[in-house]
Q: What sequence folds into this?
C-alpha cells in the first residue's frame, strides 16, 4: 500500500502542473439548451384546488412526535429516601443528617474537584461509598461530576479504579421481555453482579433511579477486590446518601 501511495503522489502533481494539450485548450462547444418555459398564472384553473389543506399547512405549526426511545426523567421517591436518611442519621448517631453532611461528619469519600459543587442541583439521591468499605486509607483521588438527572463518581487509587454512576433517565420505549427479565433479575439484596475483563460490576434500582458500581484492578486475577464479588458488594452496602435536590422532581 505504501509503494502505491508513493506513485500516486508524483502522478497527481504532474497532472496538476502539466500544460493542457491543444485539444484540451480549445473550449468545448456548449450543447444546445432548451428555451425556458414561462407559465402565465392568469391561465391556471384553480377551481379544483383544496384551499382548506393549504390554509391548514400555512397557519398551523408542524407537530413533532417524541421519539419512542428518547430518555425521560423518571419520578424519584423522595419519601423513601427521607426514611433512609433517618436510618442513616441514627446509624451515625446524628439527629440532623443535613448538618452532618454540611459539617463533614458522614464517613463517605469526599470529592475534591470544583465541579462537585453542582451536586446541589442533582435531582436524584447521590449515593457515595463509605470510607471504611473503600479501605484506601485516604490514598485516593475522588472526583464527582454531577448533572441535573445523573452523576458520575470516580475514585482512583494505586492499582484500582472505582466508578459509581446514578441516573433517573430511562427510555420511554418499553424494553423487550428478555431485557425486562434481565433488568428485574437480582439477588436477595436486589443486586445484579457480573464479572468484567478487569473486575466486577454491580447494578441495582432504588428510589426510582438506576445505579451501578464498577471496580477495575490492574491485576484482576490476583487482586481480591476484583477477583470476587465481596468488595463491590461491600461498597454497595456502604452507600451513603450524600446529596440530592427534591426540587428537581420526584414524589
A:
Amino acid at each position: 500500500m505504501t509503494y502505491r501511495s508513493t506513485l500516486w503522489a508524483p502522478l497527481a502533481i504532474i497532472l496538476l502542473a502539466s500544460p493542457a494539450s491543444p485539444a484540451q485548450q480549445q473550449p468545448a462547444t456548449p450543447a444546445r439548451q432548451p428555451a425556458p418555459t414561462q407559465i402565465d398564472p392568469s391561465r391556471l384553473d384553480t377551481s379544483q384546488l383544496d384551499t382548506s389543506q393549504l390554509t391548514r399547512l400555512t397557519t398551523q405549526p408542524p407537530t413533532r412526535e417524541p421519539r419512542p426511545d428518547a430518555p425521560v426523567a423518571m419520578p424519584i421517591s423522595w419519601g423513601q429516601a427521607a426514611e433512609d436518611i433517618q436510618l442513616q442519621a441514627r446509624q451515625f448517631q446524628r439527629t440532623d443528617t443535613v448538618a452532618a453532611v454540611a459539617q463533614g461528619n458522614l464517613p463517605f469519600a469526599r470529592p475534591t474537584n470544583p465541579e462537585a459543587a453542582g451536586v446541589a442541583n442533582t435531582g436524584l439521591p447521590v449515593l457515595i461509598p463509605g470510607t471504611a468499605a473503600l479501605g484506601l486509607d485516604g490514598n485516593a483521588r475522588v472526583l464527582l461530576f454531577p448533572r441535573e438527572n445523573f452523576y458520575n463518581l470516580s475514585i482512583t487509587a494505586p492499582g484500582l479504579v472505582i466508578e459509581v454512576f446514578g441516573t433517573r433517565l430511562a427510555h420511554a420505549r418499553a424494553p423487550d421481555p428478555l431485557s425486562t427479565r434481565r433488568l428485574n433479575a437480582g439477588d436477595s439484596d436486589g443486586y445484579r453482579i457480573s464479572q468484567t475483563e478487569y473486575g466486577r460490576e454491580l447494578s441495582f434500582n432504588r428510589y426510582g433511579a438506576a445505579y451501578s458500581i464498577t471496580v477495575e484492578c490492574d491485576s484482576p486475577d490476583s487482586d481480591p477486590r476484583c477477583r470476587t464479588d465481596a468488595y463491590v458488594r461491600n461498597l454497595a452496602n456502604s452507600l451513603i446518601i450524600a446529596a440530592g435536590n427534591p426540587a428537581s422532581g420526584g414524589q
Observations:
- Residues 143 and 160 are 14 Å apart (CA to CA).
- The first strand starts at residue 71 and ends at 73.
- Residues 2-17 form the longest helix (16 residues).
